Amino acid sequence: MKKEEYLKEIYILESVRGDVRVTDVAMILGISKASVNKAIHVLKEQGYVNHKHYGTIKLTPAGKDIAKGLLDTYNVAFRFLTDILNIEAEIAECEAHQIEYILSSDTSKKLEKFIETYSERNNI
Known about the structure:
This protein has helices at about 5-15, 20-30, 35-45, 60-85, 90-100, 105-120; strands at about 50, 55-60. The chain has about 120 residues and is mostly helical.
């Protein structure tokens, strides 16, 4: 699993619950606590999270930036697939998850602008 996926899920959990623990991340991602602990250790070394053993996980500003960027790109991709291309939500969700890792920030912003313009012109 990519480090960005951990950061994104921690970001979402922080937004919803406040405090995030290893168990929460493991449950959401459907993986073992040991796997999450290893990933958190690496993310901590890279400066993306703060975490004390058996404590809560907090994203650093750098970790939040990456997570928010991914989530924003996912939302833009999902909206494009569903609103513009009329792809079923279930399929669009899977494909938007794949797209979020390959689009640059610049491309995501341009796609978002396209969606807004298209939506305004077509009353969507």
